Amino acid sequence: MPTVPGRFLRTAAVLLPAGAAAAHIGPAATWLPGPRPLLFPGFAGTGGRRHIALTFDDGPDPVSTPDFLDALDELGARATFFVVGERAVRHPAVVRETVRRGHELGVHGWRHDRPWRPVFARDAEEVARTVRAVHDLTGHRPRWYRPPYGILTTSRWRAARRAGLRTVLWSAWGRDWTADATPESVRARVAADLRGGGTVLLHDSDRYSAPGCWHAALGALPAVVRDCREAGLSVGPLSEHAPAPARGPAPGGVLAE
């Protein structure tokens, strides 16, 4: 069990709003992988102790996503893909193929933007719009929501709740969006935070990150899955993970687990 570092107290402090704007942006601290699993296990995607939820963000991408689907087929693994709505409607064939191969879809927003000026009506419409797009394309209604950049504001949490989605972030990531990411660095970064019941975040597209960085995630994927299995952990989508329900931001922007 990781110890709580001194910087945790500084991190936790930003959950307490200093004004109206902070009531929206304060919950963004939930993206930090250190304190999140300790304070907010529901948001961190904490599930069954012998299972790892494998998740991908930022697709669909007609260039890179098919390679991830092929790799997962070879590994005999399924995953949850959090899709950006405006990209899903541009690349419907990739969306349908993802589902056809046995994976599930989550909502990653209509656009991949930072919520510097959150407006609930807009957030609610964009989340609902993405839900409709996924359902129209696949016949399946998504169950999960992950905000772009992992920045969870009160407004976006409420929007997800209104749409009937459960918000799930992650407990381990590969930092695979950077220009200097390599398969080795991605694997090592995931392994550093890998625990039974965890949720792993990787990216199947470089649309919002360093060009070509998806190759690092793809190259690391077999080793990441192998590390999980050698540790006696099964790998699969969130629907097999049963993460604990998460209560959301309390009034004033303070997150309550």
UniProtKB/TrEMBL annotation:
Q: Where is the composition biased (Low complexity)?
A: 242-257
Which residues are in the NodB homology domain? 50-236
Task: Kindly indicate where the leader peptide sits in this chain.
Answer: 1-23
Q: Which GO terms describe its biological process?
A: carbohydrate metabolic process
Q: Record's SUPFAM superfamilies?
A: Glycoside hydrolase/deacetylase
Segments of this protein annotated with the region Disordered? 236-257
Coiled-coil positions: none
Its domain of life reads: Bacteria
- Name of this protein: Peptidoglycan/xylan/chitin deacetylase (PgdA/CDA1 family)
Q: Which organism is it from?
A: Streptomyces echinatus
